[in-house]
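Can anyone check this?
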Amino acid sequence: MFKIGEFSKLAQVPVPTLRYYDQMGLLKPLEVDRFTGYRYYSASQLPLLHRILVLRGLGFSLEQISAALTEDMTTEQMRGMLSLRHAQINQQLEEAQNQLHEVEARLQQIEHEREINTYDVMLKSVEPLLVALVRTILPDHSVVGSLFKEVYDGIGPHVAEALGPHPGQAGQTLVLWYDTEFKDRDVDGAAAFMLRCRVPDNGRMKVEELPACTVAATVHHGSYNTINEAHEAVLTWIEAHDYRIVGPDREIYLYNSAPLSRDNPTYVTEIQYPVEKIISARIYDILPTLQRRLTMNTTEPKIENRPEQPTVGIRTQIPHHELPNIIPQLLDETEAWLHEQGAAQTGIPFIRYHVINMEGDMDIEVGWPVAAGLTSSGRVKADVIPAGRYASLIYTDVAKGIEGNSVLIGWAKEQGMEWDAWNVPAGHAFASRVEYFLDGPDDDPDPANWRTEVAIKLAD
């Protein structure tokens, strides 16, 4: 007989895949050493493994493969399975072709929009900006220009040093709008001059430093009467790219000429909105699923029915940041307990999240799948991972656990699925939320290559 690593080389199948097939009941080792937990396989199992791989390559699910292996399937039944798979692939091709047509239509629409859209919105970082301003409630937006004289007069004798020899030159004046909703009257606005140095406050004229920030910005070439089109372009971009506004928007006057006129088409104004990326505090809203999948290595999420699985493990409550240190300790302690009991694990190690609380303590359980019949002793408790419908995927790199979970949870949310979960005072409780460690240091010294399966039970 061969140890699992030797059988892996013989069959040219990765060790984690053999462990997974064992866990799913597709290909169990002929013998498991009761003391060491080592799995032993025989060359006589190669034809069965080959059949599993062939069916998997044809796109059959593990449940379908399991049914094909456990039942005495006739040639006609196998022909029926293949015919069904043939029809499924044809349907997928048709759906993919329809999606391709939709993508092509969307590309054409984007090209058309690009041709007619005169505003290019960009993100950029701006430095702190020292300004002298007068802020007040205005009857409407159009009268804000009347405040500039009050600002200039308030700077008074410091004009030469604070504004330079040409105080009205391009790029030195701006307007700030503070309202968080649209108003056509009684608007909260300010007129401002950019300062070279700080000057004393004078009446309604105050000196402030606008903080450094990231802004969504565009340039409006045209009259002040049409400037709302530029604002609309920036606001549309902000919403489409999942940003939110975090400060007053700015109109920086890059070019105008005296006498000022609201309908002069030669004016140039830069519109800036201070923004930040929207990132939800809840783990499953961290980033959109598609964005995560573009930056992560994950398998396709799937739904499957899983049987009840007896386990032994140690349950504890710890902060999230302590997980990397605690998990190996609890696994070693549980494995040593199994050896003392003369029992062996029957699958790969796991961590089960009973309660999620990213800001407080996580209620977790770390352990191993085992055969039924073991009883609790000391810190090690016998339990079961409940049967049910699970959504799952496999992600790579142990450091990306939050991202991997986020992909699965975002995908399920898009599908309209609900978890078997509920809120409790300590956080968010799950009937069954488990991560299985498919790889470890014995398989690859680099944790960035380790794979983890996350499986979460769906509501009945």
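Reply from J.R.: I decoded it. The chain has a mean pLDDT of 85.
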